[in-house]
Specification:
- The protein has 18 helices and 21 strands.
- The strands form five sheets. The protein has a seven-stranded antiparallel beta sheet with strand order 1-20-19-15-14-9-8.
- The two termini are 30 Å apart.
- With 541 residues, it is an alpha+beta fold.
- The chain has helices at residues 12-15, 39-50, 55-69, 126-137, 147-155, 161-175, 183-189, 205-216, 220-224, 226-238, 244-248, 276-287, 299-319, 330-333, 336-343, 447-461, 466-471, 491-499; strands spanning 27-29, 32-36, 79-85, 89-94, 157-158, 201-202, 253-255, 258-262, 265-269, 362-370, 374-382, 390-391, 396-397, 428-432, 435-443, 475-479, 482-485, 503-506, 515-522, 525-530, 537-540.
- The longest helix has 21 residues, at 299-319.
- The protein has one domain (1-350, 357-474, 513-541).
Length: 541
């Protein structure tokens, strides 16, 4: 019998080990499991499972609930992506295109894309993701999936600690904005000119009203009804570029997932316009290096992982965009022969690479599983709250995913009308020998592929159980030789990496290192874990 690549990570011995002293523990069940970055959203998923729904119902309900209880990272005006296992792997790209009438003149003299205002939103795709997933796999009535979120929005909920911290960090920026396009956003999210504090009750009745309209129309109100009309009208009166056609022609797209094998385990991502390919390229480079001979918390292991990731990012930032505009094929970028060539560039000292120019992200990731389905789902406003634009009387805060475009002439990801931007949000999934292991993800803009790589390495190379893999201290490459380390990283590692020409900074900010969830299957048992750096919760039954 072939040895399972995650045999050590899912063994009885590993499941009882928590080497990084997390206060969280694995949860296990056999009928279903759910995990999100906010406990009330996780409860929404469990509510669907208890009502007879499946993992897709649970995932959608959690995604909808997160637009209310974690508005600092996502909303009704988000984009979304998903991987679903139902005996085979399916990918959904629910990102939107830039307005078809978007002019290029405003970008001509900009060194990089703006993060606020009407130049940044593309058509929001999250609602189309909920629609598409439910139509294909949903078991409960569509309206039922909205009930927890509507309840939270109408009755209010206590703002959780990490969400409150993110809200507070955004306060100075968003309260200071001037312009009629920003006023509705400020009135909803910064009542009395401040962010709500942890434990305070926050309500959004208009959010509830909008979710009700989406629920009762099967999502049509958002793209071809009253909500689409409200978005277009506000754009017309405040300098935006959306038209009714932009929304009416939007369609979530079923896509072929991409994958690579890493020491026998298959790692799945979505194809460009997402950056999931970066994780796969880095894993291809790492596969030819014997990480396991070095300790998990060793200088050598950190150095090799960081360098592999930098090499992958150098290619991704140069070549990846909407696939219609890419010059290199996915097959070329994922070639193991090419990875072997890139591997030869890794030396004992850090390789300097150009600055990426990517911004800090605002994203939610969730996972769900039952006896037949497994879902990896991610939803995002991108840069924190997004564009700063909220449609009056709706609770719809528009994302700023257009910030992911490049302003460089000739770049395949250059901003253009009717085009999808480079996307940072990536759901992940693991399988082995054509059987599912399970969904995983780590949110956080450029941290996401880096988090995916570190999770896979922790599980496969170091045999860590899912919760330990999440708890383990992380690194984050920023640009050139700059690397962030979490304070739990051993000082000897920080000094050793500095000696190898890495520019090391320590950061105690949890959001700098992403926030993940994971559900893995071992036989009939589902093993779920939630990120200690967020307000998350994993539940199973």
């Amino acid at each position: 019998m072939k040895s399972h690549p995650l045999e050590r990570a899912l063994s009885s011995d590993a499941l009882t080990q928590y080497p990084y002293a997390s206060q969280r523990r694995l949860v296990m069940g056999s009928r279903g499991a759910v995990a999100t970055s906010q406990s009330l959203a996780t409860l929404a998923g469990m509510e669907m499972l208890s009502a007879g729904g499946n993992a897709v119902d649970a995932a959608i309900a959690m995604a909808i609930a997160l637009t209310v209880v974690e508005p600092t990272s996502n909303g009704i005006g988000s984009d979304a992506f998903a991987l679903v296992w139902d005996g085979g792997m399916h990918g959904l790209n629910a990102s939107g295109k830039s307005p078809h009438g978007l002019p290029l003149e405003p970008f001509a003299d900009l060194p990089q894309m703006p993060t606020l205002g009407w130049l940044t939103p593309t058509v929001p795709g999250a609602v189309s993701a909920w629609q598409s997933l439910w139509k294909r796999w949903g078991k409960l009535p569509f309206e039922r999936l909205f009930e927890p979120a509507i309840r939270y929005a109408e009755q209010g909920f206590p703002v959780s600690p990490e969400v409150a911290r993110a809200w507070s960090r955004a306060e100075a920026l968003f309260v200071s904005l001037s312009g009629e396009e920003f006023a509705p956003f400020q009135e909803v999210f910064f009542v009395e000119g401040r962010a709500p504090r942890a434990g305070e009750i926050w309500r959004s009745p208009n959010h509830a009203k909008t979710l009700s309209a989406i629920a009762t129309t099967g999502g049509e109100a958002f793209y071809r009804g009253e909500l689409a009309d409200a978005i277009v009208q506000f754009a017309e009166t405040t300098g935006g570029y959306f038209t009714g056609e932009d929304f009416a022609t939007h369609q979530a797209e079923w896509v072929e997932p991409i994958s690579t094998t890493y020491r026998g385990v298959t790692v799945w991502e979505l194809p460009p316009n997402t950056q999931g390919i970066a994780a796969l390229m880095a894993l291809n480079i790492l596969e030819g290096l014997d990480l396991a001979q070095h300790g998990r918390d060793s200088i050598e292991s950190y150095h090799m992982q960081i360098e592999a990731m930098k090499l992958a990012y150098a290619d991704v930032y140069r070549h990846v965009s909407d696939t219609r505009f890419m010059e290199l094929s996915i097959e070329e970028l994922l070639s193991k022969v090419y990875a072997a060539e890139r591997r030869q560039l890794i030396r004992d000292r850090a390789i300097p690479l150009p600055t990426s120019g990517m911004t800090k992200g605002g994203t939610v990731y969730l996972a769900a599983a039952d006896e037949e389905l497994m879902v990896s789902f991610i939803q995002s406003n991108y840069n924190g709250f997004g564009s700063g634009i909220l449609i009056p009387n709706t609770g719809i805060a528009l994302h700023n995913r257009g910030t992911g475009f490049s302003t460089q002439i000739g770049h395949p990801n250059r901003v253009a009308a009717g085009k999808r931007p480079f996307h940072t949000i990536i759901p992940g999934f693991l399988s082995y020998d054509d059987q599912p292991i399970g969904p995983f993800g780590v949110m956080g803009a450029p941290m996401q592929p880096q988090g995916h790589l570190q999770m896979v390495v922790n599980l496969v190379d170091y045999g860590m159980n899912p919760q330990a893999a999440l708890d383990a201290p992380r690194w984050r490459w920023i640009a050139k030789d700059q690397v962030l380390l979490e304070p739990p990283v051993f000082p000897t590692v920080a000094v050793g990496l500095s000696d190898r020409a890495h520019q090391i900074q320590l950061s105690a900010e949890p959001s700098a290192f992403g926030r993940g969830q994971i559900i893995l299957r071992s036989g009939e048992t589902l093993i779920a874990a939630s990120e200690p750096r967020a307000d998350g919760l994993a539940l199973a039954w």
